[in-house]
């Protein structure tokens, strides 16, 4: 049973969740071994992928739809997705995620979601308690 409540404005859940992700990443409250071995975090996205002004690459304004080709992974000579197991490559999924959520600081979450900063951080800490090993 939940015993802690904090408000969130309707329609702002993605901002709230992105802020939680940023908190977990910045505070290393995740299972790195699992992330590297069992997620797409180390896969490298094609060079023509981008996210600018709220739109991902491949958007066709006339058709109002995306051509998602640029969202694919970069392939090696055998046709397999390239990886960076150190998670240092700027276009690996891990770094693209970090870049994407970097704007969702606790202050931004408070401003957009209406959630008091202290309450938001408390939620993040609760989640972090169960997010990383040890």
TrEMBL record:
One of its GO terms (cellular component) is cell envelope. It is found in: Cell envelope. The keyword Zinc does not apply. The keyword Plastid does not apply. Its cofactor is [4Fe-4S] cluster. SUPFAM superfamilies: Formate dehydrogenase/DMSO reductase, domains 1-3 (SSF53706). Keywords: 4Fe-4S, Iron, Iron-sulfur, Metal-binding, Oxidoreductase. Its EC number is 1.17.1.9. It is an enzyme of class 1 (oxidoreductase). GO terms for molecular function: 4 iron, 4 sulfur cluster binding; electron transfer activity; formate dehydrogenase (NAD+) activity; molybdenum ion binding. One of its GO terms (biological process) is anaerobic respiration. Belongs to the prokaryotic molybdopterin-containing oxidoreductase family. This is Formate dehydrogenase-O, major subunit, selenocysteine-containing. It comes from Klebsiella pneumoniae.
């Amino acid at each position: 049973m939940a015993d802690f409540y904090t408000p969130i404005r309707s329609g702002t859940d993605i901002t709230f969740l992105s802020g939680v992700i940023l908190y977990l990443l910045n505070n290393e409250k995740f299972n790195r071994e699992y992330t590297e071995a069992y997620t797409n975090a180390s896969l490298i996205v094609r060079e023509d992928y981008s996210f600018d002004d709220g739109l991902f690459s491949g958007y066709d304004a006339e058709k109002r739809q995306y051509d998602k080709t640029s969202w694919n992974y970069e392939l090696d000579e055998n046709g397999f997705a390239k990886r960076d197991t150190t998670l240092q490559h700027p276009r690996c999924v891990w770094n693209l995620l970090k870049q994407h959520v970097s704007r969702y600081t606790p202050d931004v979450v408070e401003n957009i979601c209406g959630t008091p900063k202290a309450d938001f951080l408390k939620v993040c800490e609760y989640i972090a308690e169960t997010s990383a090993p040890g």
